[in-house]
Structure to design on (192 residues):
């Protein structure tokens, strides 16, 4: 497994990096037999240390956790415990969903634009219609998943929604967290 351990304006020493590799590796191997890489980032917010961890599994799932404490090792331990709890919760679901999968999840790419939120920054186009100003252009990864896998991926990542390509029909779908606590699923195939 590849590790990328870094600090934002913090020097991450060899002792901490070695501790992170050992402890995180042990935690992940209990639940996921084929992790591909882990990114651990330490930062500081006022008097607290923050530890953000993202683990990519060969199945295409991404697990994400965060910890904060007044000491850097304690912040990592809190983050590791959250990752452990998250992976433990999903272990059965991971086995059920991926037992028949012979290859890792395929990812496509899509253009991702960040638009200005202020109405004053909208530009008038040649047709007289105002268009939002594009602040940034990036590329997003779009996985090919079943609906159940997409819901699990969204929950593992702690995101409010996930855009994915439905593996049954190849169309673009969206799952999202609703205000009532349920999960919504948008499948635009019925649009005609």
């Amino acid at each position: 497994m590849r590790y990328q351990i870094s600090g934002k304006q913090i020097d991450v020493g060899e002792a901490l990096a070695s501790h992170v590799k050992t402890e995180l590796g042990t935690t992940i191997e209990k639940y996921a037999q084929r992790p591909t890489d882990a990114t651990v980032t330490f930062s500081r917010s006022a008097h607290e240390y923050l530890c953000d961890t993202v683990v990519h599994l060969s199945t295409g799932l991404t697990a994400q956790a965060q910890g904060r404490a007044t000491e850097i090792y304690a912040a990592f331990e809190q983050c590791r415990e959250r990752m452990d709890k998250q992976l433990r919760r999903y272990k059965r679901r991971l086995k059920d969903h991926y037992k028949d999968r012979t290859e890792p999840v395929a990812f496509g790419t899509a253009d991702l634009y960040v638009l200005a939120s202020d109405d004053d920054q909208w530009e008038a186009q040649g047709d007289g219609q105002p268009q939002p100003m594009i602040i940034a252009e990036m590329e997003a990864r779009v996985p090919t998943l079943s609906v159940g896998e997409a819901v699990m991926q969204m929950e593992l990542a702690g995101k409010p929604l996930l855009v994915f390509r439905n593996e049954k029909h190849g169309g673009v779908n969206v799952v999202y967290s609703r205000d009532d606590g349920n999960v919504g699923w948008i499948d635009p195939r019925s649009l005609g």
